[in-house]
Amino acid sequence: MAADDQRVNVNQSEAPALFRDVNFCIVISKTLGEAQARRLTTLLVDNGATHLPLSSDSSTEPVEETTHIISSTTDFPVYQGACDTFVPVVKPEWVDASVSRKRILPVRPYSPDPRLFFSGVVVTCADIPEGDKDAIVGGVLAMGGQHTGTVTKTTTHIVALTEENDKCRRALSKGVKVKIVLPHWFDDCLKLGKKIDERPYSLPSPEIGRLSLADPVGIPPNPNLKGAISAHPSGAPPTSVESPSPHRRGFKVFEGKRVMLSDDLGLGSRLRGTVEDLIASGGGSMTGSVHKADIFICQYREGSNYITAARAGKDVGNLTWLYYLITNNTWTSPMRRLLHYPIARGGLPGFTNFKISLSNYGGDARLYLENLVVAAGGEFTKSMRQENTHLITARPYSEKCAAAQEWGIHMVNHLWLEESYAKWQVQSLTNPRYTHFPHRTNLGEVAGQTQIDRQAVEKFFYLADQDMASEDDEKERWVQNDREEPRSEVDSGIMKDIGIAIPKRTSALPSRSFNTPTPTGRKTLNANNQEAYRTPNHSTECNENEPPSTTSSRGAKERAVARLHDLAPDIALYEKEKKRVGGVVWGGKRQASTEVEKGRKRGFNGDNQIGPDADENLRYTKKTKRPPVIMRLLLTGYKRWANSPKTEEEEKKRLRDLGILCTQNPLDCTHLAAPSIVRTQKFVSAIAVAPIVISTHWVDACLDKGQYLPLEDFLLRDTDGEERLGLRLADTLKRAKKNNRRLLAGETIYCTSNIYDTYKTIIEANGGRCLIFRGSSRGGAGSNASKANGTTDTDDESDGREIDDMLLVSGETPEEMNLWVAFDKMALSEGRGAKVTRAEWLLDVVMKQELEWEEVEKFCFDR
């Protein structure tokens, strides 16, 4: 590889070379060795490419002229820099495929990005209905896969219902290494957003059609969690035979890196010495300055050193991550695994009230999730009790699951926990991804694949107030370069008046607010009117009767400078208002609140509140031109973005720039857009909040004209749909507003497992309680159960319903019909009657927002 260290340009052929415009780097890793790298380099250079070796320094960006990075993984130091500079990262297969086809292929299907979980999948469909085929192909393409019309050498999957078709016969007869799977596999992968094992879906004898849903499923191994199950490693880093010896040749994971260990790690002198020796053996060096460090190791997401390192794009990880690098001698991003990144003291806001138990997870996955619950600030309980708030389960079949359904405890998969922690915001339980459980899959096999959300970390943890910084850090931050930042005349004048010298400033990233609670913290308001938490030891409040501290006058002056710099916009506004006829009208805080009030008046009416948009609107000051949220829009049945996630992302950003925030939560929307009256889960659920219903043509018009258009001409009018469903949309919305999401309040409705996932959201959106019924006669939400739990039913005979009737919503499959007798027995055991109705009844009630119990008989099954 020595010869490859120089830039090479080869273009000896008269015809234009295939890769003549390609300047590439190759990342060596465990899955892309040096021998393969040499072969790829030769192949690319012979076809006109230029080799630009990655720099060996601590740079976070690739060489400026680089057009492609060849890597089998995203775990290399400059990956994020490549993303920021739009340099594509492709797998080695891209090179071979491009040479084979004699043209440069698109890079997306060959991306190693784990979010594109169908990358490497080449699918063809056989005996699949056209509509299902289009949906499968669209999903595969959106998630990085490819589609081919015939079976070729590169085909990896055939989607079929049976093997009795030409494509399957041809593949089997020629011995093509291809997996023949049911379309259900793609459905489940797309619903979860993860690629799961194909074996339960593989023909000729798929488990999902051969075994019962309740049959046990083994605990799958998960190598992805090795070395990442806890944020608190115990003892010294491993030095076993399997791990690289400090004196072993080839141990160079820290080569050229300067590492700083934070004081919050609490390392003893002996252990600290061991760690430093290992870093030195790996080619690294130690430093006591965060500005000189390439890697910063700390336990908590707090303090000036953490903020400085994170803002500068340095690698910030915890001790577990450091041990992982030493053990595996391979670099990986500390954000790649959730528990490799420093934790937040006090946990995720809102999570401290949760009591969470686990079911059906085993091995490393169980330990990992237990630790993640604690890291998020929740309380983990081994046993299941009625005071539990959540059950996280890999499959919906266990004694704990049955208890959760009977007690009304939220039951979700681990993706809810992981994504809440990664995005640092408690995720909505109505998201179907979190309540989806493939029939013959234990979801423990995909635990640990979620990564830390960089934008969330930047939003919630990049501290703007540097009061806690030490004097040395403050001094070094001010004088680390000679560039001087311009100041306003007001700012400079006031500082001179109070006797503070103006130090040189560096150009820094925009400051952001820090609103994560600490155990001893209390709620205050920061400079942007946002809620923040400060410990009493660092309160910015002062008492005018107390003398100022003189323990560190220089530090106090420098902190005063920092505070004045933050106050500069308000001071400038004050000076401007003084010149206005009539004097000062108002200051910065009142102006911000007035902007929010304007947004509230524009976007909401009636009893609706500004709700979750308040904090977001307050952030839009003069520094950012993005308008506040004036509409939370839920789209359903919208075809413009079908099979085009990139267009969807770009146009959603354009809508957001118009004040339109697209939401996926039906209960969070103020406006609902649809092409017609449709009975999708989103449409039916959203009706409960009485949104303004408009046509999707309005969205098209706003995007095409680039402006927020009046709604009056785009209100949804669908006379055919109203006639078909026997309703008037305007009357439905009036009743929904009057019902205030209490149409089914006080009602407990049972559903069979086949329809539970869909109708649970609809029932709960209208204030009801939905329980799954699997044939157990252990009791439900009847009068006896209610008394046992200290509650009482609120049924009233005047509403036309017999008070003792229990209701089961069911389909007509033989499996569901077999449950009806068991439901009768359960109702009888509690001294109540039983009715089994079609799902059509529930849709009719919710779409009309009118509940008349005598009408239920029309929808009941004849038994």
UniProtKB/TrEMBL annotation:
Residue span, BRCT domain: 14-112, 113-203, 351-423, 631-716
InterPro entries: BRCT_dom (IPR001357), BRCT_dom_sf (IPR036420), CellCycle_DNARepair_Reg (IPR053036)
Amino acid composition bias (Polar residues), ranges on this chain: 508-554
Region entry Disordered, spans: 222-248, 471-490, 507-558, 596-615, 778-801
Residue spans of biased composition, Basic and acidic residues class: 475-490
SMART domains documented for this protein: BRCT
Annotated Gene Ontology cellular component terms: Cul8-RING ubiquitin ligase complex; nucleus
Gene Ontology BP annotations: DNA double-strand break attachment to nuclear envelope; double-strand break repair
Protein known as: BRCT domain-containing protein
